[in-house]
Amino acid sequence: QVQLVQSGGDLVQPGGSLRLSCTVTGLNSKLTAIGWFRQVPGKERELVACISGDGGPTHYDRSVEGRFTVSRDDGKNTAYLQMNYLKLEDTATYLCATDLMWSCPIAIRDVVTWGKGTLVTVSP
Q1: Which residues pair with 78 in a beta bridge?
Q2: Confidence of residue 11 (pLDDT cuts 50, 70, 90)
Q3: Residue 98 CA from chain centroid, whole number
Q4: Which of 86, 67, 80 is nearest to 10 (CA)?
Q5: The pairing of beta strand 118-122 with beta strand 92-98
């Protein structure tokens, strides 16, 4: 059974940084894309970043491009989302996910497994 175990959410001031982690268990995730979504109450869940399998291309939403960096350490079966220059509007629950396919982006309808989510709060 594939599971995604998340960590790293916190309260941070505007302009600050956080790194989220997503560890995949039950699967050698090297060849699978990992996506980072975020959800705000009352809004649709949106894909903000994605990294393809096996060191392939990355994908970013325009709202985070240049501030967020997605990476992976396949030796640890873990993907990361480094978030810099955080803004108030980045406040959300962040969820990692996979569709067990190689390439990005990942569509919500294709997600096979979700992480439980971690709350990122950006506040003065």
Answers
A1: 23, 73
A2: very high
A3: 10
A4: 86
A5: antiparallel
Taking residue 53's Cβ as centre, other Cβ atoms within 10 Å add up to 19
Token code pair at residue 116 = 């439980």
DSSP 114: E
Cβ atoms of 35 and 17 within 8 Å: the answer is: no
Q: Give per-residue burial for 72-91: e unless 16+ CB within 10 Å, then b.
A: beeeebbbbbebeebeeebb
For the chain, strand residue ranges (E) read 3-7, 11-12, 18-25, 34-39, 46-51, 58-60, 68-73, 78-83, 92-98, 113-114, 118-122
Under DSSP, the state recorded for 91 is: -
Rounded to whole angstroms, the Cα distance separating 43 from 65 reads: 20
pLDDT at res. 20: 98
Q: Tens of pLDDT along 17-51?
A: 999 999 999 988 888 999 999 999 999 999 999 99
